């Protein structure tokens, strides 16, 4: 089936604007107005189902739940109109039950679209949404919901239904907040759904504020018509198939992000809003303050903020550890890099000087590595470097250090080792070199007084001597045979 193109979505929304304007200018009791209230959600139901059939998203359940929401609203509007014409309409009525039943369908559908229920993969976004929703919910409870419950002009059923509507609207607005705290693809379908929630629930909240303060009564029907068309327009747009795509990389993992300045200000404002509500409570309720609700709201928000801060600290620590690994370890071979080598050599020289131990440094260079790269390709050259590092590491003690010195050069620190013993180590390393390759090496034993740079310079000079002698060998720097064969204690004493 041919996909619904974006220009047709614009035409659809244009029709919604026209009908919303028509609803605003016509008298509420006009037959066209009454039929429009029933037709809008009915048409939206069919449009959502049509969009799912044409675009075939990976997950169809969320969109069918949104269609069920529109269908419930259509039946509720029909029941209300029938009751109004029969003169049997009352509050609360069966129409209110159907209207309220529509909210869970919409909330469930929207939640399923938020990264496919990525609660475990995006805990930070969930915590932020809970914090903001708690602040908004406490505000609505203190200023509007509790006064409705205390309104003795209505029966208990009427008061409960009156409170149920703002609670349901708060639920949808909380889902909208979750939309914007969840990373993902934000295409036209995302923005149309967001606009729909604002038009359908946001205007209800504005109406509630106006009527509670006695300043105005907003006619929400035109906004409702436009909101239903935005909801259906999201399903008709091709971007609805990308609604659950993640920007976190492979496997659907959400990329961790540090909290932005804007989000810090928003969360801070939400926390400050709770104690700030004490002032309007005192003014509107003649000094009576709901301390229980205010205290519980403050504690819940502060706990959420503390959990969020703990997560940020853990994230920063994890990133610091990653940076430390990147700074001190070679990404190709996984062994220490030149920076780590310099630090390790200074440390081992200090320990050797303190305890009177022998210390040997070796610089190893793979023979004809450029030629190997030219013959086999750079990827195979990387494999050789990686395999050589792993093979050599297996031949060394845990106390020894193998590092990538640079390019195809490696450095080895042999602790408590004399020159004569280090040559046996070189024999094992040469035998373990993969791909039948060879290396040249230069060895130098610490004199007991020279610096790390001087020790490495002697080993490097010995390496070049080995290369000039034909490669596939090692040379020892500045060692007399009798010194190499001396016991460890005597070698240290003479140095």
**How far apart are the termini?**
87 Å
Class inferred from helices and paired strands: alpha+beta
What percentage of the residues does DSSP assign to strands (E)?
5-15%
Number of helices: 18
Indicate the overall shape: elongated
Radius of gyration: 37 Å
| pLDDT < 50 runs, ≥5 residues | 247-254, 479-495
Q: Let me know the number of strands.
A: 5
Specify the helix fraction band.
Answer: 55-70%
Cross-sheet strand order for the largest sheet: 2-3-1-4-5
Q: What does the oligomeric state look like here?
A: single chain
**Average pLDDT value?**
81
List the helices and strands and how they pair.
Elements: H1 6-25, H2 31-55, H3 61-86, H4 94-113, H5 123-149, H6 156-181, H7 188-213, H8 221-236, H9 261-276, H10 278-284, H11 291-328, H12 338-355, E1 359-366, H13 369-376, H14 378-394, E2 401-406, E3 409-415, H15 419-432, E4 439-445, H16 452-468, E5 474-477, H17 481-484, H18 488-494
Parallel strand pairs: 4-5
Antiparallel strand pairs: 1-3, 1-4, 2-3
